[in-house]
Amino acid sequence: MRLARRWTIEELAEASGVSVRAIGDMERGRSLRPQRGTVTALAQGLELDEAAHSELLAALRAGRPAANPSIPPASPCALPRGVRDFVGRHAELAALRALVQQSVTESRTGNKAVRSPAPVAVLFGPPGSGKTTLAIRLAEESAPSFPDGAFLIDMRGLDAQPLSADQAVLSLLGAWGVADAELGRQSAEERLARYHATAATLRAVVVLDNVGSEAQVRPLLPREGGLLLVVSSRRTLAGLESVHRVELGALTREDSASLLRAVVGADRTDAEPAAVLAVTELCGHLPLALRVAANWAATRTNWSLQRLADRLTDEERRLDALSAGDLRVNTAFALSYSRLAPGTARMFRLLSLVPGADFSVPSAAVLAETSLPAAEDLLEELLDAGLLMASRGDRYRFHDLLRLYAGARHRAEDGDGASVAAKARLRAWLLDMAVLAGRWYEPDHGAPPPATGRLVALADREQAMRWMKTESDNWLAAFREAVEAGEHAKVIKVADATTWFSDHWVSWGHWIEVYERAAEAAAALGDLVREATHRNNLAGAYWIGERRHDKAVAEAGRALAIAEKCGDVTQQAWAHHHLGGLHALVDDLPPAADHYQRAKELFAQADEVNGYLAASNMTIRVAEKAGRPRQAVAAYDEVMDLLAAPDYRDRIPPNVRDTTITFATFYVSFAHLNQGRWQEAVDALRVTGDRLEAHGWHERAGMAHLHLAHALVHLGQLADAETEYRAVLAMADLVPPTMLDDARAALDALATGTPSPPTHFV
Question: What one-character DSSP code corresponds to residue 66?
């Protein structure tokens, strides 16, 4: 390309800003993997069109492995990688290190009576001052003091719907190993209590980033233990008491120069001290602006820093100020943005339309209508330029000021039509993916059909689950956009596809919204079957998500009335199933039994075996609680016969089969125990304990171990009984204190030779 223009290497170096040596190394094949920013600088120096620039990027891409479309493991609280060239903030770090030492000291103090609350740091300052970078730096360097790990949650304090304290608790408890099923059964108050109990046992760092108000974090302040909580905010959060505040403003002149030196190189900065001073002044000594400008200069190794200062001055004269942030910050943005290749600049603008906190390569590819490798090239180029930041896994994110800047450039350069089209494109893809991933859990769907060009691998349920969780902010936002746009069919389709999936992520706090919007969409279309379906789903969501018994009963009743009106047998059956469970929850057993029996009849009429199994399982428990053990055992035998029947082998998914066996066996164990059939009870409970624990039903797993131990004592198998009692104690953080007390009392009785296991079990 250079020779086609009859340029010398020196002329290309002058036009592009890339050094003569770097260009020579690339041309001779000594440098196979230059930075993308360097390639962009060369393309701009050569004044390449889009096709030629793409050809140059293809040569770069050939020097590295192809992009991997697989989904990284979902780790919503993982700490992003910090910057390699962190400088300055000595006084601030000293104050924070003192808190680390306090946290370590407190965690080792034996006398709890004299322990003070766990330390909390609040980092506050203007946007772009490096609050998140400092928090991550502290967490990384303190890793040896916190063996239980470091966790970060973006509280999204500037969003229209900031993250609530309960949502943060859900994420942290999940990251700390609490099963989703258990979280789904607990109220917000119970989850918060569990958070504090777990936090008191951990030596870890938790960063709550981008906090908007005291209410978001006040419930999360740790009471004791070795947890260090670091909060970052633009506000002082003056309403929080007993916290250590660390203010971050602009860097000192010396630290600003050190940051430029770390990114650009000591030789260049030391040679032009006046230019360094000019650049730092033009960037307002704010780390974000300095890093963006320095990254731009780092790839223009043949240009002087005075040239950078001159460019910043030129940009300042012609830049329109944005409503947020310092004008000098935006000046640095404008300089780097104006030097992007057209395709990269377009990607930067389009990414402002992503609704979530971060995004993946596939989402970017959809927005820009390009391939995965090309999208990754563009994202990495923006990362190199300092216009994007790395997020968890293989994801990317904006600084909020850069998102504002990108949005302003999008509105100015692309117009409303392009915005509407790009949003619709991303929304359609996100919702289509949610349907494919959610249907992995449906009995009649499973794996999506093969498709060439699919941007995300969905080879198994685990990949589907990871996508649904990792992209939940984005696909939920797309769902809301579809509701606002009146895309009723799409709204219903997404809700249909997540019905079975929702049982595997019960702690997610948005199922009520999903099914309520779907029921409304169905009503708008006059589709009574779909409305009944999602009223049924809504009944389950009200109980599981909010423990609203009254709301759940009302929605199940509405679903039944609508299903009867349109003659849909399956939804009538599910409505009776929900009503049976809701009556059983308050021990109103006769109507519970009647509803379950009617549900079984209707499921049989509809030939819906999976629903029939669900109702049959609950029939076992209701019959046993009503004092009819023989009926309970007969219902259990019917379930086992159905599972073994060849006609149903392919119609019952593995996860439904496994769950059915687990709970049917657990429920029937009560009938055996209360009849004194100790060996039958032992046989049943040996099956269920580990299965329940694997599903995250820890309280029931603890009950299974405890009941198994009691049955073993009745059989005289005292050594085995002791093992099971100790298994209960090993679940100390997972089961109620009363269960632990029962296990300890039973162990004491065994030790004194006076065991007295119960004969009645509830």
Answer: P
